[in-house]
Amino acid sequence: MNSEAATNGELSRPGLRGREAELERLRALVRSVRDGDGGAIALLLGEPGIGKTVLLEETVSLARAHGFVVSQGRAEELHELAPLASLASGLLHGDPPLLAAKDFAHLEGHHDQRIWLVERLAQLIEERSAGTPTLIAIDDVQWTDPLSRFALNVMPARLLTSPVLWLLAGRENPDLRGDGPRTTTVPLRPLSGEALAELAHDALGGDIPEKVTELLDGSGGNPFLAAELLTGIAASGVDGPEPPERLVLGVRGRLAALRPGTIDFLRIGSVLGRAFALADAAALCGRPASGLIGELEEAIAAGLLHDDGERLVFRHDLLRQAVYADLAPSARRALHREAASRLVAAGRTSVDAVPHLLKSAQPGDHEAVRLLGRAATDVRAVMPDLAADLAVRALQLVPPHDSTAFGVGEQAITALTRAGRYTQAREVGDALLARQPPLDVFARLQSVLGDTLWHLDDIHELTRRSTAALAVVTDPVISARLTARRALAQSRGRDLQEARGTGARALAEAKRAGDREARVVALWGLGEIALNAGECAAAVDHHTALSAFDAAFLPEEVVARVHLDDFDSARQLLRTAGDEPLRPAMLMWAQAGLNLGLGRLDDAEADLVTAERLEADIGVPGNLVNIRVHRGRLAVLRGDREAAEEHVDVVRAAVADRPNPGNHAAHQYAEAVLADADGDHTAAAERIRSAQRDNPFVRWRLLRTQFVEAVKIALRAGDRSLAEDLTAQAAAHASRNPSVPTARGIAAHTAALVNADHGLLARSVRILLTGPRPLHLAAASADLGRALLTTGDAAAIPALTRAYEAYTRAGAGFEADRVRADLDRAMARAGRRTAARPRPSEGWDALTASERKVARLIAAGHTNRSAAAALVVSPHTVNTHLASIFRKLSVNSRVHLTRLVLAEAEADGPSGAANTAPMDNS
After folding, report:
1. How many other CB atoms are found less than 10 A from the CB of residue 136?
2. What is the mean pLDDT of residues 360-367?
3. pTM of the full predicted structure?
């Protein structure tokens, strides 16, 4: 029967009785993706045996019939520790496979970067699915390994515009993120009495006796249980014995007829998992594989196992569970422990052995502790939460007074910190310290806890503990690490001169000890100290040395160079980062800072949105406050008061969660800008004062380029002392950075405002003309133009024109409108439109210049990756732009987008059509 069979009771095979409605929903989804309506997710949810696998298989057949490339895999309960195992099981074994083994071999070298790995995987799938609809199906999704689960949360949104249908079957909702493609949930409920009767007719033929109907009622509408029951009836007759349990009716009946050796073989197989190797079962049985051929053949003949060519597989997991349940708990535990030992002895990895250890290890099992620790190390980079769980479990297996607890505990602290479980890491560390370890162990534990306390923003405790540990440490490596941590902590304090000295000592100690970790932290601390002190050139020196030593810190070098106004070098660094598996969220933050400086507000907004999303992906929102403060400022520049308020609301919640001094200062500045925009200048000035609660305004690098706005707020509030204080700070910052035009221009601008000095305003403009920041130049030009306008000086016109054009190019509509009104007055053009036409929120005209470029490239056949290369941006940025484009144009797929772009090109004439010429793939 073909896959387009009607659904009025006509099904492709009897196993689908009672699933007509569900199958039709899935068939419609397949057609929709095939016809170019964009990607989609289908969730098949229900209890074991309810028919999820049968429906998944049928949907796979439908998709193949519609020309889909199909990837079909299955997650397995005992393979939860193997990174990407669940996804790879399908991606590598299609006909043809969606990805080649060489693709995964390339990815394996970068398991230490989850976001990068998933991005590359998405790029490969996007390239393979270009022009061809793709189905990615995973059964038993409740058992996916953490990295596959992470990918399933991220990739559907990343492949939103590609014709990819994700079909996930599981016992419970996988709780995917809400920003992916449309999701269709297909809950599988118990079969109706009519459907059960049809199943009985398929199995037994003829009229169905009333007693069979009564027995089927006991299946609870579960098709697998019903089928097993019918198998038992077919074998023994309707008047045969009636076992008390529904599943056992079908399973124990089969087991009872088997030889004892076959039953033992099946029980051992059930311990190894639903799918297992004959060699592993033989090892656990203590017999050669050749000695189990008879038992294997009997198990297959009984319909309990089948051979997929590589492994033996229980025909259904409920069958395995039924066999497994017949084992006494103590027998299960012993078999799992023996399985772990035999797998290790056979040369298998700790990842293979650990699932058995988790079900069997008891306190004092040192081999289990060692294997759990090794597995935690193996998976820490890609599955940090799982690594933390394994490390904590290893610690729990160490007897309380065993001296090895400190080393095992150190690994647990590190793993918990990597997973972002900082409070738990601190609790583990403090519990170990309460055992009063030897002094060198005490110092080592405090060194490891230093990273934990840094992430907890407990700078006081970090300083106190590192100082105490330094008083007793004898190991030069640990001493160097502690000194470096102390320098990093002092970078947040008031005495930066002392911090600088500590950092220099830490670096010298690290070099003598030859310790990489200490050297990295020392350079990082020195760079932070220099940036916080406003010593931009020194910060660049330290961060350049740091990124040369550890490329993961390249984003910090970009940030430092942006502070130095060295935009060309910053841009080149971002280009060289390319596809390297660096910290993508931090890289996007650095790129956002560069685009903000360049006045590319739309690109900066996309970068900030992407950075926030990437941080959310890994559950570590370290820059959330700064991101939202910038986005709020952008909203104010555009005149979007409602959006600005929304961003500040997020800042308020984030600061309540992480109330450190830097977050407090950034939050207060955001509140000041909002209050000033509402006309409450006094409240705004108080917020600026509050931003200086812990340190001067200039100390906060996020605010360092906002001196002009802060001074204006103070003057509007009549708070001259605050304005003069801020101006003095700006002048001091400029004197420390004579080679930075922005610092010098801001200093002249603030002094001009406080002193009402037109000459200083002109000087500010001249300085900023030599720098790279158009919005700072626009602000100074606008103030100069307004000052000249009040005196009737014709030079007001070019100054205001420069400001207007800069604000307009940047997309700062609100500021552009304000300057336009002054410019119209200066030019005395009465009746001329005084404001630019606001950008609509929907349709082609709602797209930013960058979004239009992306839309045209995608319409021309580019993938996200090739479009990113053409625009010299990150694929993450292209993906963010595409999500915005789809929302504004109300489209669901690249096909629909291409149609709209071509229609727009035709409306624009030949020049527009030329911009959407198909990509040359020759």
Report:
1. 27
2. 93
3. 0.78
